[in-house]
């Protein structure tokens, strides 16, 4: 794991401890949901922009379709701004930590005393 990663909380423990480091990941399901919606909305906006460009003539049907696709693109742009603000707000707020952690012991004997002997296939 990368100590500089913003997605992982790394705790360096005191030198007297048997534990060298603890890695804990934050809960990211809400961030992931908003990021997915943002990506989908950007793709929709790009599609509406392309469709608006395809209807470039001055025929009545093309003018109406171009206006429709331009309005839909503008709605997507507003949603993109809102979702980006939501993501930024999540980054600024305190993160909740998930219940899982990765612990690195200073000595393998400490790990064995806590978890027992490793399985036979571990040394392969």
Describe the structure.
By secondary structure, the chain is of the alpha+beta class. The protein has three helices and three strands; from the N terminus they run E-E-H-H-E-H. It has helices spanning 29-54, 60-92, 108-115, and strands at 9-12, 19-26, 97-105. The protein has a three-stranded antiparallel beta sheet. Helix 1 (29-54) packs antiparallel against helix 2.
Binned strand content: 15-25%
Low-pLDDT regions: 1-7
The residue fraction in helices comes out at: 40-55%
Q: Globular, elongated, flat, extended or rod-shaped: what is the shape?
A: elongated
What's the total count of β strands?
Answer: 3
Structural class: alpha+beta
**SSE series:** EEHHEH
Count of alpha/pi helices = 3
**Cα-to-Cα separation, first versus last residue:** 23 Å
Q: How does the major sheet shape up?
A: 3 strands, antiparallel
Strand order of the largest sheet: 1-2-3
Average of the residue pLDDT scores: 83
Q: What integer value in Å does the Rg equal?
A: 25 Å
Overview features:
single chain; 124 residues; alpha+beta; three-stranded antiparallel sheet; elongated; disordered N terminus
Quick overview of this protein structure:
The chain has 124 residues and is an alpha+beta fold. Helices cover 54% and strands 17% of the residues. The chain is built from three helices and three strands; from the N terminus they run E-E-H-H-E-H.
């Amino acid at each position: 794991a990368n100590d500089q990663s913003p997605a992982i909380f790394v705790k360096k423990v005191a030198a007297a401890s048997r534990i060298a480091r603890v890695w804990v990941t934050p809960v990211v399901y809400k961030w992931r949901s908003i990021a997915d919606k943002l990506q989908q909305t950007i793709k929709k906006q790009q599609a509406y922009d392309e469709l608006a460009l395809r209807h470039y003539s001055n025929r009545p049907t093309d003018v109406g379709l171009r206006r429709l696709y331009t309005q839909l693109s503008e709605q997507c742009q507003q949603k993109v701004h809102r979702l980006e603000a939501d993501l930024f707000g999540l980054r600024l707020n305190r993160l909740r930590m998930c219940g899982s952690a990765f612990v690195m012991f200073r000595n393998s004997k400490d790990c064995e005393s806590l978890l027992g002997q490793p399985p036979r296939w571990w040394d392969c």
